[in-house]
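Morning, I've got a small favour to ask if you have a moment. I owe you a coffee for this, so here goes:
>
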Amino acid sequence: MRARYFRLNDLIIVFLFLLVFCPSCTMETTESRNKEAMRVKFKEDSLAVAEPINYTDSIAVTDTIAEAEALAAAEEKKSEEFKFDAIIDYVYNQYTDASTVKTDLDEIRKRGKLVALTGYSYTSYFIYKGTTMGYEYELLEALAKHLNVELEIVIVQDMDQIFDMLNRGEGDIIADNLTITKEREELVDFTVPHNTTRQVLVQKKPLNWQQLKIHELEKKLIRDPLGLAGKEVHVRRESSYYSRLQNLSNEIGADIKIVEAPGDMETEELIMRVSEGKIPYTIADENIAQLNLQYYSNLDVKTAVSFSQNIAWAVRKSSPKLNMAVNAWIRSMKKEPAYYAIYNKYYKAHQGVDYMVNCSKNLSCGRNISRYDKVIMKHAKDLGWDWRLLASLIYQESQFKPGAKSWTGASGLMQLMPATAEVFGATNPADPLQSLEAGTKYIKWLDNYWKPRVPDKQERIKFIMASYNVGQEHVADAQRLAVKYNKNPQVWEDNVAYFLLQKSKPKYCADPVVKYGYCRGREPYNYVINILDRYQHYKKLIHTEG
């Protein structure tokens, strides 16, 4: 086969053609796809010629044509495809900002906005009862305030692309529980660490684990990484877990079957899949894994597969001033109580709630549910609810403790967020009477919201309860998804509830009909189930009607 060479100016013409007539090829896709588009278009248009052509015959289009000639000469002995790729890289870098984005702290302050790249997750960024939350988000807000700029969050759907997005200038900083690795340090500059963790194996306990003695359970779990030989472990290709598994496979002298998960699949979803038995194992940072044990008690995350690792944010290598400013802020912030308050809020203070009712402790001889029964009966009558149903909701929220305060800032018997309490007239949410009155008004408001959308009262109560837990916006998103996928938008179980569960997955939370993004749907889903189950329990034990 005869060697094929390409005129550099022809290649540039193709690229300029793509810039004008196919902007999505050069701006909306990744760098690798941009280059592939150039290759395909070049070949489709038959701009490659059969006869060898000297590069010096090409017209001069830049002052640095000598660099292209030197590049071609240096690769003379290598394959034709490699030679073509080298010139593609040269032209791409000359005519795009992919390798030359220079936005640094001065430009950020000038435009008055810091753009942060992150993902939808409990620790990064999410919306709870209309309030924006997340460990990374709260730290970023504090940083933006320190820099005297606004904060803009860009949600990354495919986490495998997050470093490309940063280097293309689509964000100024990455904040998404990133571990520092040598491979990543070739792509970006990391800030000083703001946290540490280690990687652990996420595995499912056997079905009868609750009946097993500790030593019996231990024998059924992998406690030594050697036990991963020949096992399938699911992780994202561009995650630090993938490279760790490759190294671990070498260290134990045996093959670990690394299964590549989609780039848009969050670690939390992989953890959920292990719990459901859909995949056998995954790897997660210990802080994330421990957090998820609150939701999946059938998982074990005690087996470490790495030493301690630093977690940090990342900036472009062309942003040294921003890096210096962030480093100074982190060092200062970690000396302040505010940093540890944010950390504890998401990683330590938030504990799982036992939803089961202990009759001997919570019921008084089968006649009362709580000391607030009479006032609950009054408000339930205003709602048209069985008072025992309202009591079950209140127990779910606060266990009848008027001074209860959640990690999110909700407080009182009805666990009202500060803004909600203010709107519905509770000036002191710790006052049980104020809390009950304001909470009842809120439920009535939700009933009016859902009445035209869900005519059946019994079905509507489920929508109301889910909305009370997570906000009506997320439930409305799930209803729109139900319509789109030909499910019944007026039925909760297996219809709207199903899509509320799906809202933690990128495919659904990024759907065009979804207006409010990510939601950990399992929480409101379980919330409704627990209240209704407890209600049935109350009905069996409490025979008086309000």
Observations:
- The CA atoms of residues 249 and 255 lie 5 Å apart.
- Residues 105-196+312-347 form a domain with the D-Maltodextrin-Binding Protein; domain 2 fold (CATH 3.40.190.10).
- The longest strand covers residues 173-179.
